[in-house]
Amino acid sequence: MTSANSNVDWWQISDEQHRETYEARTQLLPEWPIIGRFHLLQAGPGGLRSDAHPDEYELHLVQEGCLEMWVDSPEKRYTVTGGLAILTQPGQTHGGIHEVLNRGRWYMLRFVVRPNSKKAPTGLPTSQYEQVKSLLGAMDPPVFSFSPSLEKCFERLLDEHRHPTVTSELMARSLLHELILWIARDHAASMLNPPRRLPRYSPPIQAA
């Protein structure tokens, strides 16, 4: 049960689905259209339809269970199990295998990286913006092992939404920048020591 002052948005359907999301009026920053966490006890058909976001990155951090996704093409399939994350690039089409959302527990965030300008005075300085875009753009394959530091960033961002104060917007922006850097660091570390569960299976292997 949440307090009257909380921005938390919980829903529950037959004890099978739980969601805490912040978007529109409950989000702290315009840099992310949505942030949240999900817990599904049963798979849901039609829960991962194909989609693309022209200016937004989309990150899923799987704690338990798995997400079965394709990126760019239904032939490029990925199984994202507990301890793994997946990042899709702006404009990159992606979706679930057979549009099914498997049971599991994970964090999700869509975010925008902006350069500093009159329209976005809180964006990154040009050199840092180019560096971040380059780091995120080089993340191939899109699946990687995530660290406790990245997971904690997610939880701290959600906590700022649950208990907002006058400094929450500033803290959230600082945490977003930290989160982006942990994404890049975790992916680089994961590529040096690829997890055994990092699959990029061909369709025949997937069928088997």
Give structural notes.
- The protein is α+β, with helices and mostly antiparallel strands and 208 residues long.
- 27% of the residues lie in helices and 29% in strands.
- The protein is built from 4 helices and 9 strands; from the N terminus they run ββββββββαβααα.
- Strands 1, 2, 3, 4, 5, 6, 7, 8 and 9 form a 9-stranded antiparallel beta sheet that branches.
- A hairpin with a 1-residue loop joins strand 4 and strand 5 (73-81).
- Helix 2 (148-162) packs antiparallel against helix 3.
Give the topology, please:
Layout: E1 10-13, E2 17-23, E3 34-40, E4 57-71, E5 73-81, E6 84-88, E7 94-96, E8 104-111, H1 126-137, E9 143-145, H2 148-162, H3 168-192, H4 203-207
Antiparallel strand pairs: 1-2, 2-3, 3-8, 4-5, 4-6, 4-7, 4-8, 6-9
Helix pairs in contact: 2-3
